[in-house]
Write a structure and sequence with these properties.
The chain is of the alpha/beta class and 273 residues long. It is built from 9 helices and 7 strands; from the N terminus they run βαβαβαβαβααβαβαα. The structure holds NADP nicotinamide-adenine-dinucleotide phosphate.
Length: 273
């Protein structure tokens, strides 16, 4: 059982989508929320809703891709919240692009915000989380485990943060440090992630879940202590299927994607030259 009431929860990327939904869901259960993102107008709107349930909640406008600013932001957040019980590393960007078409700048951007930034923020906050027997939660993606089409760099970023979380959990265990570490891997939830510019079209044929589905998944790992959870839960079985027949699984992805491209009537990728 994890009771959110009175817990101080810092959620990055809380101006929209899963972060905003999680902020609302936890505020409704009495958590004090810290919201972080870049868009002030969107943060203000989420904060106003959150404060209806949790008046001590706070928001900070911060670009988490500015790695040099992360330590100072971490200190501000902890000072303003009066400590920290849960960090949810949720801020992230997609990149739908055929593998060989990624520009160098977008490779750097994806790795900075999806990998480097949450590692740096978590490192800056581990002492505070240790002081409260707290938790670090990473919002990954099923892409971390499943090699979806036209998302190779994004998948690499989510696999990297998943591997980091696993390694962190081991290292904290060796040190006897009582901080829980968890990764929640969403499948397809209806957010602005699928409408952001400078991305190829989504090839997914999965019916999106509402963003509120993230709330029970995060509460679930906080309560159970589990390292990893999937949203929806049925994705949990697929990594084992993939590991059991990697070549067959990847060939299946090729055939599925070829069929999707035909169905959608979009141009197949030009081979690299
Ligand atoms: N939706 C899905 O189906 C799905 C599936 C798998 C994984 N995910 C993961 O879920 C997380 C949330 O995504 P979402 O679907 O909720 O999309 P979203 O609505 O686009 O939310 C992304 C959030 O990240 C913030 N963000 C992006 N760059 C940032 C930066 N440099 N500094 C601070 N904040 C930044 C955005 O806020 P600002 O733009 O205001 O900064 C926004 O609040 C991401 O890590 C994503 O990879 C989503």
């Amino acid at each position: 059982m994890f009771d959110p009431s009175g817990r101080r929860v810092l959620i990055t990327g809380a101006s929209s989508g899963l972060g905003a939904a999680l902020a609302m869901g936890l505020a409704q259960q009495g958590a004090v929320i810290g919201l972080a993102a870049r868009r002030p107008d969107r943060l203000d709107a989420v904060l106003a809703e959150v404060r209806r349930h949790s008046p001590d909640s706070r928001a900070w406008v911060v670009d988490l891709a500015d790695l040099d600013g992360i330590d100072a932001f971490a200190r501000t957040a902890v000072d303003d919240l009066g400590g920290l019980d849960v960090l949810v590393n949720n801020a992230g960007i997609p990149k739908r692009r055929w593998a060989w078409n990624h520009r160098p700048d977008e490779i750097a951007d994806v790795l900075r915000i999806n990998v480097e930034s949450p590692i740096r923020l978590t490192t800056a906050l581990l002492g505070d989380l240790a002081a409260s027997n707290g938790h670090a939660v990473f919002i990954g993606s099923v892409a971390a485990r499943l090699a979806p089409p036209n998302e190779a760099v994004y998948s690499a970023s989510k696999a990297a943060i998943t591997a980091y979380a696993e390694g962190l959990r081991v290292d904290l265990g060796v040190a006897g440090c009582p901080v829980g570490v968890h990764v929640v891997q969403p499948g397809v939830l209806a957010t602005e992630l699928f409408e952001l510019p400078d991305n190829d079209p989504s090839l997914s044929d999965i019916e999106p879940l509402p963003p509120t589905a993230i709330v029970d998944a995060v509460l679930g790992v906080l309560a159970s202590g589990a390292t990893e959870a999937f949203v929806p839960e049925w994705f949990r079985d697929l990594p084992a299927v993939k590991a059991g027949n990697l070549d067959g699984f990847l060939q299946g992805a090729v055939e599925y994607t070829t069929g999707r491209i035909e169905t959608l009537g979009i141009a197949p990728p030009e081979p690299p030259t």
